[in-house]
Amino acid sequence: MILPNLKKEKGKQEIAANSRKLEQIAGNWNKYRKLEQIQEIVANSKKLEQIQEIGTNTRNWNKYKKLKQIAGNWNK
User: Fold this and answer.
1) According to the model, what pLDDT value does residue 7 have?
2) In the prediction, which pLDDT does 9 show?
3) Got the DSSP string for 19-51?
4) CB contact set of 51 (below 8 Å; sequence gap of 6+)
5) Per-residue pLDDT reduced to its tens digit, 28-66
6) Rounded distance, CA 44 to CA 47, Å?
7) What single-letter DSSP state applies at residue 52?
8) Distance CA 6, CA 17 (A)
9) CA-atom Rg of the chain in angstroms
């Protein structure tokens, strides 16, 4: 009679231990997902900076071409 009770108690302890392990895994998974999201945000931010830099370079190039055209007309 004592033996079956011990088996039940041991089973309950194992279930509790496994439950804690699963909670820990779930917590780690959520941290991993958040890290992935942060990395994606950083990558998108870098892409946006590159796009902004291209836009600035394009505007500067267009200004340079206009100034060169004005200078060429002035020298005529």
Assistant:
1) 75
2) 81
3) HHHHHHHHHHHHHHHHHHHHHHHHHHHHHHHHH
4) none
5) 999 999 999 999 999 999 999 999 999 999 999 999 999
6) 5
7) H
8) 16
9) 33
